[in-house]
Amino acid sequence: MADVVCLGILVADVVAKPVDRYPERGKLVLTERMETHIGGCAANTAVGLAKLGVDVKVVGKVGNDALGDFLRKALSQAGVDVSGIIVDDTVGTSATMVMVHSDGERSFIHYPGANGALRLEEFDIDEIAKAKVLDVAGTFVMPGFDGEPTARLLEAAKARGMITCLDTVFDATGRWMKLLAPCLPFVDYFIPSYEEARHLTGQDDPKQICEMFLKSGVKVAGVKLGERGCYITDGIESHYIPAFDVTPVDATGAGDAFMAGLLVGVLKGWDLYTIGKFANAVGALCVTAIGATGGYRSFEETMRFMETAPMKWEKL
Questions:
Q1: pTM for the complete prediction?
Q2: From edge to edge, which strands make up the β-sheet containing 95-100?
Q3: pLDDT in tens, 274-283
Q4: Three-state SS for 74?
Q5: How many CB atoms lie within 10 A of CB 177?
Q6: What is the CATH number of the domain that holds 264?
Q7: Residue 265 is part of which domain span?
Q8: What is the C-alpha to C-alpha distance for residues 43 and 173, in angstroms, rounded to an integer?
């Protein structure tokens, strides 16, 4: 039985690098690499957990098409339980064109596809609750599930004794806290990216951001700060944990990798600082390879990296 259920968006990523300029209308530009990868928050985090030695199941939806077949096969080969993936004949598999710039930054063109067709009534909460942790991954791009339906699932998971985690993506619709607020009282761990956190709270200071999340009901709040590391607090202890000094190749999936590392620490019962440091380590390794999952290492390799790699100390 899985220790973690990652429920949320599953995406086929078509990654091109480098893309430093877009073609003019009717023209073509060349790139050095173009590859198909596992993508989407739930899939990325699940692969990371499997690589780190955690029994993990993914729950989500794909279309009955070649990209859906690719995702299910690739996830299974990565050691993820794919029995919770729904195949929908009426909609295509979600896909993203990821254009990686020479410095590792990315731009995206996204098709929501099957992720937009997810519905609460499709989930078996009693089956999900056999796991220890529920990670809802991809809030704001699941329009049939975001908001109140997500809150109801999280509430049911908490009632069954599960640890809950929620991860967001950028909300292109601009609804932000209107959708998220009903969910937060039932979330144990919530650590969005800095840009997402700023839009959610209207605050710039990570400490003030986290105070607002804690007041909304979150048990452990934090902010992923990218190349500056992370800030994490439970309202009693607070830690700024700097990033590891690595040369970025592709930042795709770094936030999902961070969440995989965080969940490993939670399952192992580590203290808050060690949880954040290990999450930073998994995120740092992620950006050293192209694609959202290519940089994952084993638990032992990640521990060695965490204990020996230099960190970039900065003031928060």
A1: 0.92
A2: 33-39, 11-17, 95-100, 106-111
A3: 999 999 999 9
A4: helix
A5: 15
A6: 3.40.1190.20
A7: 4-9+41-93+116-312
A8: 23
